[in-house]
Amino acid sequence: MLVVPSFFKGVTINAKMRLDYELLSSPESHILKWLGYKADAFNGIIIDKYNLPATQTLFQVALDLTIAHAISQNKRLIWLTLPIERSNIVPIATELGFVFHNCLEQEVTLILRLVNDAYAPFVPTHSIGAGALVINENNEVLVIREKITTGTGYKLPGGHIELNEDIHIAIEREVLEETGITAKFQQVVGFANKHPYRFGKSNLYFICRLEALTYEIEIQDIDEIADARWVDLDSYITDNNNSHFNREMVKSLSTATGLKIVELEFNQGVEGKREVLFSQNT
Q: What global pTM score does this model have?
């Protein structure tokens, strides 16, 4: 006998789903229940990705019940994150109306809008990169040339900021990896927004001023970096082999002041501590 929870009465279940219910043989199958979840801030629910049913059939049943339950509670949106080892159940979700929202290497997040105008925030729109403007006491700027570069020009060391990595930590890491030089972050002196960039997303590029603590170049990332060197600042700016953007950037920012890291009292939100950079009063 098929036992349907009271909240589910009146909700249409197709014949295939009814057949699936009858054929359940798992020890879990004597209880039909929706998936565990928590509420989000936008009248939606976030399904618990750590306690998903073990089989495809049980997942299909539980997800269908969850959708019905969310509708009965007047929810607007359902979030579903699936780890890579459960990628076989992605088609079940998409057949029920879920669409892709964002993806990491080890998991994919899907959403189901229960109303057409449901707000689904946090769609990734940008990748974040940073470049290091390091000028030594001899008025030389630290530059690198990547192996993938087709020309002979040089650029500032730097790269992409990793997930959960602060800007100042990322740029110090990049300088060390690409040049072997230990440098200390001082301030953000500029940024550029480029779009479209890769895979249809935009890119934010932060230019950071750093102070060199060591000066001897010893490239760590030999697979990526072809050369790293100190170059006279004026020579770099006038060298047409370097891109116009890089030359203008170095020229404009070599003596600029910018945003410095500040520690604020009570700087601890529900989602962690913020990296805060403010301009300084003169």
A: 0.76
Q: Which amino acid is at 165?
A: E
Name the strand (E) or helix (H) holding 93. helix 90-95
Give pLDDT, residue 151: 83
The CATH number corresponding to 126-278 among 3.30.360.10, 3.40.50.2300, 3.90.79.10, 3.40.718.10 equals 3.90.79.10
Reference 259, options 209, 193, 195, 196; nearest CA is 209
Tokens of 81: 């994150």
How far is the CA of 97 from the CAs of 1, 60, 90, 93, 105, in angstroms? 28, 12, 11, 7, 23
Q: Is the pLDDT of residue 263 over 50?
A: yes
Report d(CA 249, CA 130) in Å as an integer.
13
pLDDT at 214: 98
d(CA 136, CA 117): 54
Structure tokens at 113: 């809008």
Domains of the chain: which residue ranges? 17-113, 126-278
